[in-house]
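Bit of a strange request maybe. I'm writing a small parser for structure token strings and I need a real example to test against, not something I typed by hand. Could someone generate the tokens for this chain?
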Amino acid sequence: MNSMPKRVRIPLALLSLTALTAACGGSDGGSGSATEEVTVWMYPVIGDPKANADYWESLEKAYEKKYPDAKLTIEQQPWDNRDEKLATAFSGGKGPDVVVLQPDQIPQYLANDALAPVDGAIKADKDKFLPTALDSLTHDGKAYAAPIYHTITTTLYNKKLLDQAGIKKPPATWDDIKAAAPKLKAEGLATLDYSASNEATLNLNFYPLLWQAGGKIFSEDGKSAAFNDDKGVAALTFLTDLYEQGAIPKSTLTNVNVVADQALGKQQVAMGFTNSALDFGVAEKAWGKENVIVGAPLTGEKQAAFGVPGALGINADGNKEGAEQFINFMTQPDQIESLGQATGFLSPRTDVTVPTDSPYAKQLQDALSVVVPGESSPVARQLMGILAPEIQAAMTGKKSPQEALDAAAGQADDLLARQR
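Reply from user aminoacidic:
Good idea to test on real output. This should exercise your parser:
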């Protein structure tokens, strides 16, 4: 899963070196004693390539000004194939000292003893992070990554299309969507955008619906799949019924969590349910700002939204002292605020609110109250490759929802058994 950062496209708010150098000290509380080079693998969390490069170059200078004996190298890496590249680097003893991680990556690296805890770097501020963010990065009582930003998704509506169908209130629940579908179909329009390509991340399509149905991906003990229970079947049946009625566009089968040049961007479908700040900007350009409505996360049996902390983890075989110092630096309020302004992401700290002039800031901030940052498992990434084609099979009528989910659950249980 890495589509969230791909969606960000916010103009750069240049880093304030004055603010950075005035920030709190490292884990030693002084001017710093980590003299060895610290290497960081960073990914393009700022959509504009030049802005991304400028930001991290400025941060290197700010860090080395604060810690004159340190040498910081931030290497830009592509999102594509990042798991494979990082796993290869770790296994070969050539990985970075610090790397950006998301919650569902951590178990697979812990299984190989590739990560060291970050508790020492954040011990003074541990109670200032969003509980859901830090909890998702914690295993056996130890934090294995420290949050530096937080993503969130929510609903996006096309007012013009809703008006065309005579729908005065944007659909906020599953029942609302079902009621709106015939009205929109009468106008030649689909209701709900969805990405069912095998390459699309399930964090931005099926999993949020599963959580809204009250379901879970894995059992409480993590030893078996749970998505094929009655709640999972309800979520997939919701999808298959809408697809069969034409309320989900046919192009969904090839969409990979993209808005531009897809049904939602082309004004062929009235709403999306896992959309980010980048998508709002794309919609404004395509539809006109007056037709963009951003709402609260959808509600099925419960309300839930996908969002994830982007966090910094430490290579167990790397420069741990230097890594802790850098992570302490990056998790201070000034850096959290600056990075948030540059990326458009939210703050993972409860005592920091990123300044923004976005008209959708409140909706995004409010959505954090129902955020689900995924479910951690060593097989989380592999499971997506198993489950996605089964969901397609159900949507196209080749299997019933129960048959499709049972087939995927059987393979998932086999994977989990091999982890024990």
